Amino acid sequence: QYFLRVLLACPSPLGAPPASHVSGAGSEPPEEGQVNTSGPRLLLSTPHPASGSCAAMDRICSALLLSLLLLLQSYGACGAPPQPRGSLCRTKPTDLVFIIDSSRSVRPNEFEKIKVFVSRVIEGLDVGPNSTRVGVINYASAVRSEFSLHTHQSKAGLLQAVRSIQPLSTGTMTGLAIQFAISRAFSASEGGRASSPQFNKVAIVVTDGRPQDGVQDVSARARAAGIEIFAIGVGRVDMATLRQMASEPLDEHVDYVESYSVIEKLTHKFQEAFCVVSDLCATGDHDCEQLCASTPGGYRCGCREGFTLNSDGRTCTACSGGLGSALDLVFLIDGSKSVRPENFELVKKFINQIVDSLEVSDKQAQVGLVQYSSSVRQEFPLGQFKNKKDIKAAVRKMSYMEKGTMTGQALKYLVDSSFSSINGARPGVPKVGIVFTDGRSQDYITDAAKKAKDSGFRMFAVGVGNAVEDELREIASEPVAEHYFYTADFRTISRIGKKLQMKICVEEDPCECKSIVKFQTKVEDLIDSLQQ
C-alpha cells in the first residue's frame, strides 16, 4: 500500500492538443509571445548521493524496530500496535506543474519511467477545477507545454494525456523551462489561480543533465513569486544545481536517485507532501474493529489489551496463548567501497539501536553479524555474546572492509554457516536474516537467495542508493512487499517500510508478557516521533 499502481496499457490518444513551444540555445528563434532566458553555461560534476545524518539512521532504526515488533505475528503476541490500513488523502487545492527533462541524455525507456512517476503522483491527488490542477512542461533545447492547468479537470484525462507525451531529445535548457513556468504555466490564462493562503503553487523539476543556461536567478524569481520548487536529480547531475533550484528547507525539496529505474520510489513522498488530512479516525473514515490511530493521509488499526490484530489488519482476536519467541537474528551488512565510511558508521549505529530493543539471552534473542564486500567476514556468530552491552561493543569495533559487493557469496555464507549449529544457531528457533546493501551485486545471487528461503529462513532485504530492486526482491521472503525496502539515500530511508510483522515474547502466555508490552510502548513512542 505504499504506491498507487497506474496501468499504462492504453494506447496514446489521437488528436492530442496542440503544444506551445519556447526555443532556447541551439534551437529555432523564439516566436512572438515566447520567452527566453540567458545565463552562464554550467559545467557540472558527477554527483554522489547525499549521505544523510545520524537523525536519518534513527528513523531507519525506528522503521525496523517496528518491523521486528510485528514480524512473528503467528507466535501469538497480543495488544498489537495499530497497523496501516487505509489511505484517504484529501489534498490542499494546488496548482501543480511538472517540469520534465527530455533531453538527449534521457533514453526513451527512461522517459517512460518519468511518465510513470508523474502518473503515480497524480493518482494520489484530488483532481478538479476547485481542488488540484495539474500541468506538464516538457523541455530540452525548447520548451513545450504538454497541457496546462485548465486543460484536464479529471484524473482520467490527466493520466491519458501523460501517456501521450513524447521526448524532445535535444539540449537541456532547465532555466528556460523554469522561466516558462513563471511566465506562462502558472498564469491566469493557463489556469493558474491568484496567490492565496487557500492555494499552493508547486513545481516539480525532474532532470538528469547539465543545464546549458543559468538556473539560480530564475529559480529565485520563481520562489519569490510564491512557487514552491521540488528538484529531483537523476544520474549525472550536480547536487549544488538542484539546491539552487529548490525551495527551503532543502532536505525536504531536493531528492537524488541513481537512475530512472528507481525514480518511482519517490512517489510516496509527494503523495504525503500534498496530503492535508491528519485525522481520518476522527472523521470515521476507517474500518478498524477496535482501535484506530490516524497517520498523515491514512490510519492504523490496533487492538485493546488482551487482543491481537488479525492478518487482515482490521479485526481483532482474543489472546489464547502462543509459542515462545526465541529468535536467531543475523545481520548481513554490505561493507563495499560505495557505502563510504561515514555511512558505514550510521549502519553500525542502526544495528545497535535494534539490539537495544531486543531481549538478549540464551533463551530469547541471539544476534550474529556478518560483513561482506569482495569477501565475507563473520564479525561474531550467534550466541557469542550473551548481553546487549557486549554485542554493541563488538558492533562498534567492526572495521570497514571497503572493497567490492559479493552479495551472492555472502548469502551462501549465511545459509551454510551463520545459521548452522556450530555457529550458535538453535534447532526449532525462528531464523531471521536482514540483508543491508547499497549496490548491485558483482556475483550471482539467485541460488543462494532461493536456498535461504527454502531452508525456512525469513529474509528481509533493505536497499539504499544504487541497490537493484530486482535483487532485493529476489532476496526477500514472501510476501515480497512486506520483506523488501528501498530508499534512494540515507535521508529518506525512514520511508522504506513501516512494518515487517514481528512480535518478540518469551513467556508461555503472550497476553501476560511484560517484555512485549515494554517493547510495544517503545515502538509506539518511536512511531509518534516519526509522525511529528
TrEMBL record:
Subcellular location: Secreted
Ranges in coiled-coil conformation: none
Job description of the protein: A major component of the extracellular matrix of non-articular cartilage. Binds to type 2 collagens and forms long concatenated protein networks as part of the extracellular matrix. Required for the network-like organization and bundling of collagen fibrils surrounding chondrocytes in the zones of maturation and hypertrophy. Required for mechanotransduction and adaption to mechanical loading in cartilage chondrocytes, resulting in an increase in expression of the extracellular matrix components ACAN and COL2A1. Acts as a moderator of angiogenesis in response to injury.
Region (Disordered): 15-42
A GO MF term: calcium ion binding
GO cellular component, one term: extracellular region
PROSITE patterns, alphabetized: VWFA (PS50234)
Pfam family name, one: FXa_inhibition
UniProt entry keywords in alphabetical sequence: Disulfide bond, EGF-like domain, Glycoprotein, Repeat, Secreted, Signal
Name the UniProt record assigns to this protein: Matrilin-1
Ranges for domain VWFA: 95-270, 328-500
Xref: SUPFAM superfamilies: Chicken cartilage matrix protein, vWA-like
PANTHER family, alphabetized: CARTILAGE MATRIX PROTEIN (PTHR24020:SF16), COLLAGEN ALPHA (PTHR24020)
